[in-house]
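Good morning N.,

You mentioned wanting to compare the apo and holo forms, so I went ahead and generated the holo version with pantoate. This is what I fed in:
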Amino acid sequence: MKIVKTVEEVRQEVKAWRKEGLTVGLVPTMGFLHEGHKSLIDRAVAENDRVVVSDFVNPTQFGAGEDLESYPRDLSRDAELCREAGASLLFNPEPEEMYAQDACTMVDMSGDLTTELCGRTRPIHFRGVCTVVSKLFNIVAPDRAYFGQKDAQQLAVIRRMVRDLNFDIEIVGCPIIREEDGLAKSSRNTYLNSEERKAALVLSRAVAKGRAMAEAGEKDADKIVAEMTDCINQEPLARIDYVKAVNAETIVPVSVMEPPVLMAMAVYVGKTRLIDNFIYKG
Ligand code: PAF
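and this is what came out, ligand included:
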């Protein structure tokens, strides 16, 4: 597996693969890889001849006061995981390689997809995500790109962007990977101290409670949200940003469990903002 830092090197590699008629998968990441990322890489390796993993903490998707500077980084560990999983190329650009100093073009999506849920407290987040993912799509030009269902809103945003901008790329959504005790895997879990780590289990408990109600036939989305909210509020270290029911494709809020419904939450545990969700497919 090669590790490259420039757009030109990625293009040369991909061009050579294309000449041989090989298919290409892309796994966009911000690094500090864990089992969740590995599941995306495994799937990409199974479905494509060559796999590019991008490892780039994208500054344009972090708002003022967010954790851009402290976001965990460990390139050599990431490289090891990618190599073992069978990736062909690890793209680890510096911010200056991805963004010219006078760059002034962004990909901006309007409406509930980007203003609801995480968009309420992170107003510039999805503009940064859409911009960097478009750039990665243009740099790698993959056949398929892989994203985790844990970032369900991001997945819906990217699917819509691909449709709206006619990217000829199949978007593959992959299931949430959890720790044995239920906590959804996230690079941000490393911010939690041991007390917070225990408290963070309230997210997966609320997910389990909501899912059980939905599967038992509860049709009132507000009732499910209320139960999940109650469950989270019982944990003193947890502070809710949102718990909400939305249509999983449009991110428009719903009050009836008409599938596909995304039950999504963002919860601060101490200073760490964690997300979790489930999708009710009927
Ligand atoms: O999900 C992430 O890690 C990031 O938002 C992504 C898709 C790699 C874009 O920076």
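The longest helix spans residues 125-140.

Happy to go through it together on a call whenever suits you.

Best,
F.
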